[in-house]
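Just scan this pair:

***
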Amino acid sequence: MHLIIDSTGLSIVGQAEWAAANTDDTARAAGRRLHVGVDSIRVIVAHALIEATVADATTGVDLITQVDA
């Protein structure tokens, strides 16, 4: 099985985050990363939503263990 893993950043936007973005207060900015594992026929077979501070390598191992192959 071939497994392609990619991630994207997601921003959490609420009133406090909006105000922080408009005042250049980056200390309050929050975010998550969505990691998705896709097989050769483009079906999502693994996923993880993590804090932006978690290492990608650790998440990759978790995604591989989700796959039934």
